[in-house]
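Proteins fold reproducibly. Look at a sample protein:
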Amino acid sequence: MIKKHLLTCSVMLVLVLISKLNIFSTTIAETVAKPTELSHRNSNFIFIKSASAAFNFADEALPVNDARVNRKLNKSLRQHDFKAVQSNILHRKAEKLFPIIEPILKFYGIPDDFKYIPLVESGLKEGVSPKGANGLWQFMPGTARTYGLKVGHGVDERLNVRKSTIAACKYIKELYGEFNSWTLAAAAYNNGSIKLERAINKQNEDNYFRMSLNRETGSYIYKLIAMKAVIEQPAKYGYKNNSVITPAPQLLAFN
């Protein structure tokens, strides 16, 4: 009787162990089968395969699980990390310019993310572009005059941070009124509203991230998002001894 009882207990113990092993193997199989989230790693930081889910421009989200979007975003992040830039000039410019730019953007109702346009447009270079654009906001002479800046006869207000930012805000607000999207407004700032409107009509698509645009405009918003990332989280992207830039609290009156 005792032997029979021991045999029964032994059989039950074996069944329990087999059950545990099956559960363990199933868990391992599910873990192995589940695709990993990490797609690239270097010595400074990690690029996320579904990176688009963690980024936005002016609170307009990027499409998630879109391989093309993730590829372009990760490329832009790599191009703006410290290994690529090899300078802290972007952070020094941000510390100097943002306290002037931020309250003007706020006064005109422009999202704070537009403060990164000057860093993308003229962050690592100075002077007049081959096409004639100048200043932080890279205004062409005609556009600058349209929005109230004096250009010519020894005067170039495109170089005045405050005045050129006011002009940029007026222009950006007008673009938003036309496209009803801050992302498209930023793209139009780079490429011009006529060209962007033509592309929207031709492609029957008004989502910037799903459109096919010229090389410069097609990467423009990704550059702004990458610039925002390296300024707000410098250590993550290899920059050292940089404090996070905080918004200016004051709200001034600008004409």
Q: What stands out?
A: The longest helix spans residues 2-33. The chain is about 55% helix and 5% strand. The longest strand covers residues 38-41.
